[in-house]
Amino acid sequence: MAFGHDMAQTSLGDHLRRIRDGLLSSRRFQRLAAAFLLTRPIARRRAADLFDLCAGFVYSQVLVVCVRLRLFQQLRPGPLTAAALAARASIPPDAMGVLLEAAAALRLLERREERYGLGPLGAAILGNPGIAAMVEHHAALYADLSDPVAFLREDACGCRLSSYWPYATGDAVGLTREAVSPYTALMSASQPMVAEMVLGAYSFRKHRCLLDIGGGDGSFLVSVSQVAPKLELKLLDLPEVAAIARDKLCTAGLASRATVIGGDFLKTPLPQGADVISLIRVVHDHDDEVVLDLFTRIRNALPPDGALVIGEPMSASRGGADALSAYFALYLLAMGSGRPRSFVALQRLLSRSGFSDVRDRPTRIPLIASVIVARR
Ligand SMILES: C[S@@+](CC[C@H](N)C(=O)[O-])C[C@H]1O[C@@H](n2cnc3c(N)ncnc32)[C@H](O)[C@@H]1O
Prior knowledge:
Layout: H1 12-24, H2 27-35, H3 40-68, H4 71-74, E1 80-81, H5 82-89, H6 93-105, E2 109-112, E3 115-118, H7 120-127, H8 129-144, H9 148-153, H10 160-164, H11 177-201, E4 209-213, H12 219-227, E5 232-237, H13 239-251, E6 258-262, E7 276-280, H14 288-301, E8 307-312, H15 323-335, H16 343-352, E9 357-361, E10 370-375
Parallel strand pairs: 4-5, 4-7, 5-6, 7-8
Antiparallel strand pairs: 1-3, 2-3, 8-10, 9-10
Helix pairs in contact: 2-3, 5-6, 8-11, 11-12
Bound molecules: S-adenosylmethionine.
């Protein structure tokens, strides 16, 4: 055995894959595939996929500049010339021309004769302010990944992202307002897209009282309150986040319907009385032991007919490694805890915590959030 290749365990599948890999890595085969009319579309798509992988970091930086210069907002009223945009941004006109052409190629902008307007992707970003907020906060992850090998060896961790999410690695309950405010504002900006997915997949109207654990500034509860006007609302989050939520729910006119508890969801007794509990973008932040502990506490707090609703981006269920998993796996490694999970992985943890009826509910855009409903 050399380098971990155990010939004795080679299966027929391994053998066929080796033949496939040999063919795909052969220059002669690549030339033939590109020349032959039937395989040409596949060869072109594979070349384009590889090009996107090599060039993706440049695409991301084009997007970062558009967001930082607020180009999409500037173009909301209508198209502008490169010269006008260059003057506003204090960027030399030639360099602005390069940026605008790159953004147009990426469909963020659109060239309209001598001017530039919003492209389909730029317009979509304008409609979802959470996306721009996400793009901006990626600066921390980008810095952590600047030497990705050192990052994986853990010998040069910039730890910028783990400072941004301090509850992932440190004393969560003692966090100050200053420490929780940036991530709470980011979650608030991106929450409407997530709430739309969860509320499209599950109706809270049939319940009496909802407890949103790790509920952030209360944005999700505000969205739920609009579609389930009779529902009593409870939120549990770290003390300083809870204080922000209290203000928000008050401003939204929900003071009489909502109770906010500041504490640690692993230590503070969970408030009683809720017949539905939600975990929105909470589970993927934590390692399995923490999740098991939290699920068990939730199961014990729910009445026999109660439900747990989990909403977050989930990786492909059939063990497939999709782009979403690649992103979240590296993101959560930099953050310091958690991992992306598939429906099957969550189902296993839920069963181990005593939930017997676990179902997934289709959402319109699973990339934003998938939904699981578990009952005791
Ligand atoms: C990724 S945010 C999601 C916020 C909100 N659910 C949303 O989707 O916008 C995770 C939330 O869990 C909270 N949290 C993390 N650890 C916690 C703990 N031990 N106890 C209580 N809340 C915690 C954080 O403060 C944060 O508000």
